[in-house]
Amino acid sequence: MPVDHTTRPSTVDATALAALSGTWCLDPAGSAVEFTGRHFLVLPVRGSFPVRSGRAELAADGTLAHIEATVGASGFDSGNPQRDTAVRGPRFLDAGRFPELRLTGGRLDADASLTGRLEVKGRTTAATFTVEELTVRGERVTVRAAARIDRHACGVGGLRGLVGAELRVRVRAVFVREG
After folding, report:
1. Tell me: the pLDDT tens digits for 68-82?
2. What are the strands, taking DSSP E only, across 9-139?
């Protein structure tokens, strides 16, 4: 059983992660995906997506073998119903045709960056998250990470002149050991 601890990694210690080897299931209720963007290129807009499912596999040597996570595009919420309906619509997320956003693949580098593939609206782009905190509590692991995502690269191009291209994404992912 792993020792309980919290770290704020600037580097990843594969030897320490080896104690966490195995398959981990994402706990949607304890996890969150939040974002901050810019409206009129100045005003901050904050919101969230509901976490649906996911899993991570760590190899015996502590390397990340695979990660996948799914969030619901139709659950986009910024607290403004008119904005939320527009963003879920075809000019932005097109949640009716593409109800989920997915992160797959994954490589955890020594500098605490997690690189994977982000799928939005059927388009896949590279995404790099910086792991800011890793907390181990028995058979539960909480990972806090952040990334800057270019929404245009993801095919979300509505209102280019009024809405900024960059989104700051923050993730809290709670994993529970499988089995």
Report:
1. 999 999 999 999 999
2. 22-26, 32-39, 43-49, 51-58, 64-72, 100-108, 113-120, 123-137
